[in-house]
Amino acid sequence: MKRSERYFRENIEKMVELMRTQAPEHHFEFRDPFWVLITTILSHRTKDEVTDSAARALETRYRDCKGLSEAEYDDVLKIIGKVGFKTVKAGRVIGAAKIIREQYGCSVPSSIDLLVQIPGVGRKTANVVISDSFGLPAIAVDTHVQRICYRTGISKSQDPEETEMIMRRIVPEALWVGLNPMMVEFGKNICRPVGPKCDICAIKEYCNYYDSNKGKESGGKKKQSRD
Ligand code: SF4
In terms of Cα–Cα distance, which of 156, 161, 155, 129 is closest to 142? Predict the structure, then answer.
């Protein structure tokens, strides 16, 4: 069955409801906009538990935007030691803190357009801050959301920004807040990168991948990052 954008627009509310039944509760290490921003900058290609622990260690050491903006690069590098691409990210979190302090008086802007001007902040990170911290409607497309959308057929694109635009067209705005964390957990639990649990998946009847791979995939375990 070939599924169109119209098909998904008509079925997405049911799909979201069904995914929610198989998505464990998401753990939010922070809700404060500044630390959500820093955590998300650190999260690229890094396991959630490593990211959360590094961000928490930074928060314990520097407390806030002002503290991190004055941090020494080598100290930050040591603190975030296990994070992927740590040499780049150490500079980026200090740089982001400096910009938030100097341009916004240590108050993180609730605007995607302003957030993406900060080096190291792309649309995914900006959308996470807007949605998870400010509670404003936004859809962050990380690796889990991208994978689920691509497999089901919601998105024909492997580009997260294009997928975000498709999702913005088909998902009612009232469902945007909380959509990313729910899909992240559904992606870790059911629509896993390796060995998706298609046989027990609540949305298999809406999925192109299921149609073409019935019975072929099972098993396999892999730790996930938030990307
Ligand atoms: S049927 Fe399989 S591929 Fe499709 S959404 Fe479910 S787990 Fe993912």
Answer: 161
Pocket test for ligand 1, best of 22, 144, 184, 210 (most atoms within 8 A of CB): 210
Domain-terminating residue out of 87, 114, 133: 133
Question: Along the chain (227 residues), what's the average pLDDT of each consecutive run of 10 residues?
Answer: 93 98 96 98 94 98 98 98 96 98 98 97 98 98 98 98 98 98 98 97 98 66 49
In a domain, 219, yes or no: no
Q: What's the pLDDT score for residue 216? A: 65
pTM of the entire predicted model = 0.92
Last residue of a domain, one of 67, 98, 133: 133
Instruction: Determine the structural domain holding residue 150 and report its residue range.
Output: 5-22+139-213
Q: Is the shortest distance between the CB of 207 and ligand 1 below 6 Å?
A: yes
In short, whether 187's Cβ falls inside 6 Å of ligand 1 is: no
- 204 Cβ closer than 6 Å to some ligand 1 atom: yes
Can you say how many angstroms the Cα of residue 176 is from the centroid of all Cα atoms in its chain? 13
Q: What does each C-alpha distance from 185 to 21, 23, 76, 110 come to in angstroms?
A: 11, 5, 29, 25
Number of domains observed in the structure of the chain: 2
The CATH number linked to 179 is 1.10.1670.10
